[in-house]
Design brief:
mainly alpha; 10% strand
Length: 132
């Protein structure tokens, strides 16, 4: 491995904005193992490792779990169908979240509109707003 084109954990963390702790955790669980080591326990990440990290971050952004990301990346040759299926599942989840959020926003607006006309009493009954 050409150590000239490699980054240490700290250098990779600084360049990507990912914490050293996260990179070490990814190594610990086998999600992103560095391509080499220098004397001692200094990890060296090569270009292939950096590309894998970029794919990890993209899939993580889409909301996939680390285990699912590992399954996708570690498949011998992840088929377009497998990746497409995972992406479609994430899209479905996000669309449901959007629909739910829109429903909540609508309910809040309705409640705000209603509160302009009616004061709700804590122990039952609704009374029109009146000067007190």
């Amino acid at each position: 491995m050409d150590k000239e084109n490699c980054l240490t954990t700290g250098q990779l963390a600084k360049r990507t904005g990912i914490t050293v702790r996260t990179l070490r955790y990814y190594d610990q669980i086998g999600l992103l193992s560095p391509g080499g080591h220098r004397t001692g326990s200094i990890r060296l990440y090569n270009m292939k490792d950096m590309e894998r990290l970029q794919r990890i971050q993209m899939l993580k952004y889409l909301g996939l779990s680390l285990q699912k990301i590992m399954d996708i990346l570690d498949a011998e040759s992840p088929s377009n169908g497998e990746i497409r299926h995972s992406l479609q599942a994430q899209l479905d989840v996000l669309q449901k979240k959007i629909a739910h959020t829109e429903h909540v926003v609508h309910a809040i607006r309705d409640a705000m509109e209603m509160s302009a006309y009616v004061r709700l009493e804590p122990f039952g009954g609704c009374y029109p707003n009146r000067a007190e």
